[in-house]
Amino acid sequence: MIISVLTPTYNRENLLGKLYNSLLENKSSNVEIQWLIMDDGSTDNSGKKIQEFSEENKIEIKYFKQENQGKMKALNELVKKATGDVIIECDSDDYFMPNAFEIVSQEWEKNKERKDIYGLCFLKYDTDGNNMGNEFKKQETTMFDLYFKEGENGEKAIAFISDVRKKYQYELEKDERFITEARMYHKMDENYKMICVNKPIMICEYQKDGYTKNITKQFLENPYGYYEYFKEILQKDFKGVKFSKRLYVIKHYILFSVLTKQYQTKTIKNFQNKILYYGLFLPGMIKSTKFMKGE
């Protein structure tokens, strides 16, 4: 099998070596590795560093460069160019465990004939060896159910079935550069499920300038995409959704309604959610205004 690893990168010359070495460690697995990199307008020596890796000719490396447009557009382009059986999106501050591709290959062989799944979902660890979330409770689920009904809060690593992944892209609103990956996952959920495997394949090392560390900045710079994301969630069946998650969605829907000056209640299907929305709207609007001012 062929695994296509997609990496968007911006001024991460110092981190790319760790990811590259982790790919080399996985060469012993019975897989072919294709590493596709989109340089999102770096001003450091990322291109030169990747050229050095490529000249070693140890794995297939395809390097592309675009004007700075953000991670999501970079991934949208890389998905089109991937030719592997599965696609794994791996940020430049992430890297793989030594047996990662052996695990992915084993699970892919078990499930490769299935037409009702969009990916294989694995655990993700931090650099201290801690699980970045909980173990899976079910062997098959959807991303929406996993996070909104089954109590997951941490990060996971997904090996997408390539043919399915290519049907979808990260939808960006207006001139925004970022949207949560979950928006695309939830659309995949409408037609497919994912297989859950309680084994880690990826390690994450958060950076000070990373997306997750700067979530407030992402909210303020990309409000329209987040507004659409939470609006779409409120159109779903909320049977079995935990109250804490219901509250989370309503609060954020109010926040992004204020940020985008779009106020819609017709799209809120669930009666309990409408009651919560009306009850929380005024205090939510006050809090959101303070959020915009940085208070």
Average of pLDDT: 94
What is the H/E string? EHEHEHEEHEEHEHHEHHHH
Strand content: 15-25%
CATH architecture annotation of the largest domain? Alpha-Beta Complex
Structure, explained:
- Helix 2 (46-56) links the parallel strand 2 and strand 3 (60-65).
- This protein folds into two domains: 2-207, Alpha-Beta Complex (Spore Coat Polysaccharide Biosynthesis Protein SpsA, Chain A); 222-293, no CATH class.
- It has helices at residues 13-25, 46-56, 71-81, 100-111, 143-148, 162-165, 182-189, 215-221, 223-233, 243-260, 271-293; strands at residues 2-9, 32-39, 60-65, 86-89, 94-96, 117-126, 140-141, 156-161, 193-204.
- It is of the alpha/beta class and 295 residues long.
- The protein is built from eleven helices and nine strands.
Q: Would you kindly provide a brief summary of this structure?
A:
By secondary structure, this protein is of the alpha/beta class. It is 42% helix and 20% strand.
Topology record:
Blueprint lengths: L1 E8 L3 H13 L6 E8 L6 H11 L3 E6 L5 H11 L4 E4 L4 E3 L3 H12 L5 E10 L13 E2 L1 H6 L7 E6 H4 L16 H8 L3 E12 L10 H7 L1 H11 L9 H18 L10 H23 L2
Task: Pick out its properties.
single chain; 295 residues; alpha/beta; Spore Coat Polysaccharide Biosynthesis Protein SpsA, Chain A; 2 domains; nine-stranded mixed sheet; 11 helices; 9 strands; globular
